[in-house]
Amino acid sequence: MALSALFIQLSIPFRIQTQTIQVSRQKLDSLALQKTEPTNPVDLATKRMGDHYLLLVNTAIAFMMNSEKMAQFDQSPYDGLAVAFWHAYDTSPAFSTEEMKAKIAEWKRSTKKDIWPWVYVNRMIGAAPDSTNAYTKDPYFHRIAGADLDGKAGAQRDFLQNWQNSLLAAKDSGAPGVFCDLEFYNFYKEYDVGALAKEIGKTPPQAVELLQQLGSRMANIAANQFPHATLWFAFTALTHAGYKVADNQPYYPSPAYIVIGLLDEIQKQHLPLKVLSGGAGSLAYCHDSLDQFKDAIQDRQAKIAPQIEKYRPALELSGTMTLYSDRSEMQDWVKKDCSASTAKNLADLQPFVELLLKTYRYNWIYGSGDGGYVAFAPHIANRFDALIRKAEAHASESGLH
């Protein structure tokens, strides 16, 4: 299901003097950090977010946001909001860092909360030959064979430019990092490495290598542009070892290898980055009962434990779920996935939210209109905000994770 969705020339003597001052300031800042900051570079990323953090993800797109919506969001219990400057199927030129910063500065007049730029990998995924999705009809997607992993179609360049600009905008605005969606909206069958390899004319091991190279580039760009950033992925697919078999070899889903490449580079180069695995594909957004939710949490932990241990401390789990008003307002995927839950309405979801908050330090709520949740409409949002605050209070009383 879609989560659908995006930067005075001075005289030579003065320039030299300015550089000297900057170097001196950098030395002082370095000394200050040695005295006051954690020694582990990954801990610096964690410190930006505190002990607990709640992010709202609700397909907010930059051109749709205004001061009224941001003012309403500012009253919410969330710590941050993910905003896409490109939506999932956008093929327009990347926003510059300065354009992003200007928009965020405008929104910051209405909210003190963090704005996380939201980046979609779908930009470099070609349209499936049999696609009936109207959003994939853009010629841009049809010039990509499977996925632009070799960069020949220019889509990988566009994606990485957006990745870089988003990181810079996040850093300069004071946000902890960026939110990244690795969903292949244009071609879901390519989650199968064998199918992806066939589309791009490579062997499965070659396809895996290209995916990992993309992740490696993402890691180095992040470290260069925003040291100590948090890279929050909606999902990483690291819980799905052996998802498909190609040439008698088991493989993770294709997006997992982007994350593996990124994490390998972080580990190899000792890059000061934090990666959060969001849980959209493993924890899911809805659960039939509180016990089933607990089982899902335990099952996820068991499946990803080897990767958590391997990439510690860079990799950490975050939690997710969706909220809905009541069964009568469920539509589309929420009706399909959530209608069997014992939680019939918003009030019934409180124990689920409490469990989420007590389990993970960092969480994101998928606020979907398909569940009757409109986070920027006061007459609707206030009810959901009140529920979250009540759950936070109860979770705190019983001891947060």
Describe the overall structure:
With 401 residues, the protein is of the alpha/beta class. The protein has one domain: Glycosidases (TIM Barrel), CATH 3.20.20.80. The protein has helices at 12-36, 41-49, 67-74, 97-107, 139-142, 155-173, 193-200, 204-225, 254-269, 290-311, 332-338, 350-359, 378-398; strands at 53-61, 80-84, 114-120, 177-181, 230-233, 244-246, 249-251, 274-277, 315-317, 319-322, 362-366. A 9-stranded parallel sheet has the order 9-8-5-4-3-2-1-11-10, sandwiched between helices. A two-stranded antiparallel ribbon has the order 6-7. The radius of gyration is 21 Å and the shape is globular.
Topology readout:
Layout: H1 12-36, H2 41-49, E1 53-61, H3 67-74, E2 80-84, H4 97-107, E3 114-120, H5 139-142, H6 155-173, E4 177-181, H7 193-200, H8 204-225, E5 230-233, E6 244-246, E7 249-251, H9 254-269, E8 274-277, H10 290-311, E9 315-317, E10 319-322, H11 332-338, H12 350-359, E11 362-366, H13 378-398
Parallel strand pairs: 1-2, 1-11, 2-3, 3-4, 4-5, 5-8, 8-9, 10-11
Antiparallel strand pairs: 6-7
Helix pairs in contact: 4-6, 6-8, 7-8, 8-9, 10-12, 12-13
